[in-house]
Amino acid sequence: MSVNPKEMVHRLPRGRPRLDPDLRRTGIVRTALRVFIESGYVDTTMEMIAARCGISKATLYGAFSSKRDLFTAVVEIAVRLDIPEEIEDQSVAKTLETILIPTSDGHESELDDRDAILRIVYSQAQDHPELWDIYRSTTSKESERLTEWLLEQQTKGLLVVDDAPMIAQMLMNVALGYPPNRAEVVVGPLTRVPYLREFVTIFCRGLAIG
Q: For residue 5, is the peptide bond before it cis, meaning its omega torsion is within 30 degrees of 0?
């Protein structure tokens, strides 16, 4: 049986190669974070973010249904704690310090990004209460993760906590600078690093852990 030579030609897919949806979503969130920091929640539009990402509005709305949905994803990465699965070659106190204080990445500090996003929530939530809903839901998830970590360390005999959820919430409040105060807003986030480290030291000393 003869075969049509045209049927033997391997046809390459047309257009640009498709980007992994998760990678695209992550890239959008990272870019949106910068736009929200620059313009605030109220003045930022989906058109602005799409333009900065170099994608169409249709593509952006395919990944995030609304500006609120996208800002929620931004807040989630801003407040997410870097909780290790295991404590290796360092004390519980040092590990807790690492959890509460984001590390710097190159010339950009994750702590700066966290503070900038939270300032938007603090300053604009009065007129846009949905920002408080986003803040509460995202920080509640992180508080639950931190509670699980504290209980796990207690199981291992590394610390003793009477009320893990309450302690986790206290730690979250300090790490996120909530409630905000005028001094913190004026001075800026960088001065909070030694404050957070001292808090962790005092906190761990009170729990008699190393």
A: no
| Domain count for the chain | 2
The structure tokens listed for 166 are 């309450």
The helix, strand and coil proportions of the chain, stated in percent and rounded to the nearest 5, come to: 65, 0, 30
> pTM for the whole thing?
0.76
pLDDT tens per residue across all 210 residues of the chain: 454 544 444 444 454 555 567 788 999 999 999 999 999 999 999 999 999 999 999 999 999 999 999 999 999 999 999 888 777 667 888 888 888 887 655 444 777 888 899 999 989 998 999 999 999 999 999 999 999 999 998 888 888 888 889 888 888 887 887 555 444 444 444 456 676 777 777 777 666 554
> Are the C-beta atoms of residues 209 and 92 closer than 8 Å to each other?
yes
- Tell me whether residue 162 is exposed, middle or buried, using C-beta atoms within 10 angstroms of its C-beta: 0 to 12, 13 to 18, 19 or more: exposed
137 in a structural domain:
yes
Boundaries of domain holding 111: 80-210
* CB count in 10 Å sphere of residue 70: 24
Q: Using alpha carbons, select from 125, 102, 105, 110 the residue that is nearest to residue 33.
A: 110
User: How far apart are alpha carbons 46 and 78 in whole angstroms?
Assistant: 19
